[in-house]
Amino acid sequence: MHRGNLIIISGPSGAGKGTLVDRLVARVPELWESVSATTRAPRPGETEGEDYFFLTADEFARRIETGDFLEWAEVHGNRYGTLRTAVEAKMAEGRDVILEIDPQGALQVKALMPEAVLVFIVAPSMDELERRIRGRGAETDDQVRVRLATAVHELELVGNYNFVVENDDVARATDELVRIIESLA
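Given the sequence above, the corresponding structure tokens read:
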């Protein structure tokens, strides 16, 4: 049996990663989307084990110490990470795995698993990125400023990625992601 591919989707907050990954998984149902762990509080409508595994700061730290994470990072004052065992098990079954993680985490995984395919999602402009972040209504003005400053630094990492997809139109960007996945077969 062939080992599945690891495809990492990342990019700045507000680029539309979640929307694109949801549409990609709907179009390519054999993909398995990993669920990240986080120390941040759930947003309205988020479900434990579906959107994230919500961990206390102490539990997250303990799991770092025991080597449970494939990658982890602190982003916007919260920790996020990918639990190693599930990802490795799905790949061993021959399934392609999608990780939707921040660029720090993407580069950590790439260092451990050089065969990982990195896809960077960008918004058409910084103004559009800000509009999308504010449109969620989930962040204060200070949090929006932090996310935009972080986005500037994250965009500097784009040269480390195998593919860059501009999310100017969700249907077109989803088509492009499907073509990338199909090219890995």
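Helices lie at 17-27, 57-65, 84-92, 103-112, 126-136, 141-155, 170-183. Try to locate this feature in the token string yourself.
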